Amino acid sequence: MKSRKKILLGLLVLALAVTVLIGCNNQKPGPGTAVTPPPTDQQPVAQYVGSDSCKTCHAEYHTNFEKSHHALAFKPLSDYPLTQPAGEIKLFDAKATDKTGNLDLANKDQVYGVMMDHYVVAKAPEGFTDKVYRVAALEKSGDKYVVKPAKEADIDKDGKPDYTAESYTCGSCHSPGIEHNSKDYGVSCESCHGPGGNHVTAANKAGTMDPKTAVNACNSCHESNPSKNDKGVWTANTHYGTRNYFASKHGQSASMNCLTCHDSHKPNASGLLLKADKAQDICAKCHEGKSFDLEKMMWKNPTDARGHFTKDHSFGALPYDKLGDDKKTPEIEITNQEAIDLITKLLPEAAKK
Ligand code: HEC
Ligand code: HEC
Ligand code: HEC
Ligand code: HEC
Ligand code: HEC
Ligand code: HEC
């Protein structure tokens, strides 16, 4: 992830430099996910134009995408019925608690939206350290929602929890559009396909949208290989959804990728981006007659109190009971030598750290 970020950053710096050199510096790319193709002499750096501008020509893709979890991962606060109308809150800067400011949650110019039906993400009041913060959280109450402080901290010691501006390191995956100055804050067509500005305006569309960009984009948000923690112990990441995919025979096969099993736009009957309504039917295409216990094989972290739902994708190569995890800690430690040997062989770069 880190080296990928560095490469992306490098590409962006290069793209920026070229933009300035050829004298069209109206573009403000931010760090993000899909790789922006380097500009040529003829083509200016593409702008992010928003998913709605793809609708007229790619209606079916748009309709399918809108129903996917990707489209639903970040929504406007106004989509949520609240028990009480959103109003002004007093916000403390979590890093410098003497700093306060007022934020009007009803103001759409201030509030970007809600990520994963939970965190309210907004612009910081004047004078705060960062530009974007998690400022509050939604909690379900019957069929409505209550706006609450994101953390239980009583900063002014009045016996009530206060709203704090918590640093927002989640945007590159959960709301890449904020950094891209896009109209869509959440995951959009352009999060996978890259900016579509040139494509939308080009008279001849051929070659203006690289079809490979999207296929390679999944891992920029979903890769969750294990890494060493600060004590040098390997730990499995429970967050992004492809935990240990690298260790599977699938991950090592050049002819398979995420799209062997997942659809890129169209959710199945259960609303998931899977190429069949029953996962077993996908497996059966290549493993005829075999029945896999997917619930057990795609194990979740049994010790994570917060119940993160990410499933293991090693398909039996790194089963939970062969990791040597300390069940008393929420982290999944990998201490079994056989498992470490496999990881070291397949992830030599991560092993060096
Ligand atoms: C005015 C109509 C129009 C709009 C608007 C439009 N497209 Fe397209 N798109 C096309 C056409 C036509 C093609 C086929 C181009 C070709 O001949 O390869 C295409 C092709 C594509 C391809 C396949 C590229 C390839 O080389 O295989 C992708 C991906 C794509 N569009 C994405 C988008 C996205 C994302 C948006 C919104 C940002 C968008 N399009 C907006 C007309 C449009
Ligand atoms: C999660 C990533 C992702 C998102 C979001 C996404 N796409 Fe795609 N799209 C892909 C991938 C990957 C492909 C390659 C074809 C496939 O699915 O195998 C593709 C293919 C396409 C194609 C056909 C290209 C071809 O070669 O025929 C079009 C057109 C397209 N997408 C348009 C859109 C539009 C419009 C949106 C938004 C409404 C969108 N996509 C959102 C990942 C994405
Ligand atoms: C910009 C970041 C980003 C990119 C790029 C991305 N995803 Fe996602 N993906 C997410 C987020 C965030 C969620 C969680 C959404 C939710 O559950 O509400 C998610 C959820 C999913 C899910 C689980 C929910 C479901 O609908 O089944 C699947 C499967 C998935 N993504 C597959 C893919 C594939 C395949 C690609 C590449 C074609 C891809 N993603 C590209 C961010 C991304
Ligand atoms: C590198 C990309 C990335 C970053 C950074 C990231 N997420 Fe996620 N997050 C994802 C993806 C992808 C999923 C969907 C995982 C799945 O479907 O298995 C997800 C799922 C979630 C979920 C729902 C599932 C769960 O595990 O509870 C929550 C809540 C969440 N993220 C919160 C956050 C917060 C808060 C931050 C910042 C502190 C953050 N994420 C940073 C990619 C990311
Ligand atoms: C496109 C074909 C394809 C699909 C679809 C597919 N696999 Fe595989 N799978 C393979 C290949 C190829 C191997 C490597 C076989 C080998 O090395 O002997 C493999 C290996 C495996 C293995 C390890 C070796 C074994 O046979 O026990 C498991 C477990 C597995 N797959 C489970 C699944 C599950 C579960 C699904 C569905 C969610 C699935 N596969 C879908 C092609 C596929
Ligand atoms: C061999 C088939 C296969 C491949 C290849 C595969 N997945 Fe999955 N994936 C599945 C199955 C099966 C599920 C479980 C669906 C369910 O919950 O019913 C799943 C679930 C997910 C989820 C949701 C996790 C959760 O906890 O709900 C995400 C996100 C995801 N996959 C992303 C990816 C990405 C990204 C890739 C490529 C790096 C990938 N997958 C490759 C079969 C596959």
TrEMBL record:
Residues 250-290 form the Doubled CXXCH motif domain. One of its GO terms (molecular function) is nitrite reductase (cytochrome, ammonia-forming) activity. SUPFAM superfamilies: Multiheme cytochromes. The lineage of its organism: Bacteria, Bacillati, Bacillota, Clostridia, Eubacteriales. It comes from Desulfitobacterium hafniense (Desulfitobacterium frappieri). Residues 153-194 form the Cytochrome c-552/4 domain. This is Cytochrome c protein. The keyword Signal applies. InterPro entries: Cyt_c-552/4 (IPR023155), Multihaem_cyt_sf (IPR036280), Multiheme_Cytochr_ET (IPR051829), Paired_CXXCH_1 (IPR010177). It holds the Pfam family Cytochrome_C554. It is an enzyme of class 1 (oxidoreductase). Its EC number is 1.7.2.2. Residues 1-22 form the signal peptide. Keywords: Oxidoreductase, Signal.
